[in-house]
Design goal:
elongated, two-stranded antiparallel sheet, mainly alpha, 42% helix
Amino acid sequence: CIFEYRLGCKSRQTYARYRQVVQRYFNYIREETPMRTEPIKPQPTFGGYNSVLKTLYKKGKLPQVKKGFYGDRLTKDNCSLEHLLCREQGGTTDLSNLVLASKRKNNARSNKPLRDFINLKVMADYLAQFKGIRRKGFNGDKYIKSILQTVSDLL
């Protein structure tokens, strides 16, 4: 009998009795331990990568940065990290390989070569926004030099 195989019950009556006992037990548990109703606290998100560059921008500590690497207007909602050398091609998540770009432009580039998307004047305008910035864990002048080095290696 299937009842004997699954639950060790020898008849339908024994199985029905077993179900009643289990149901009473679960009803008792529900009555004794009410469901918790406190609100869930929102968890911090970093959009995939925890980078000082994106964190500073999202917290409003880089107010002079208004445009992304491709000349697009940045907001806290559309800001994303762009890898100059794609991760698929061996790029790292070091600050020297990361720039800020809008999600739309970042997705448009995907893993295509940088030379197909870069405009040197727009890049110069992007980097000029970081000149003289010094925050905890971030030096704008060093960032500019490292990005220039990475771009020159890629082109």
